[in-house]
Amino acid sequence: MKEPLEELFNELSKQFDKIIVRTEGKISKEISMQVRQTAKRSHRETINDTLQIFSTDQRKMAHSIKGYFGAKVIEELSKQEKK
Known about the structure:
The protein has 83 residues and is mainly alpha-helical. It has one domain (4-82). The chain contains two helices and no strands. The two termini are 20 Å apart. The model has no long low-confidence stretch (mean pLDDT 70).
């Protein structure tokens, strides 16, 4: 049987993954639409590179938040084990 904190962490982790995917998609679409509306055709390659970098940065940030949260849960579990 799983520990309640472990179950909670797993459930929150799943929810967090869903939020990351939804947020990334919305942000990418919005920026992509705005940039493409104002850009000239000759800049298309630069725009795509910029969008790719932005998306990667968002993903890294989201995963680092998730990692921080996971570390806190593990820290709490180890405190409980010591008791």
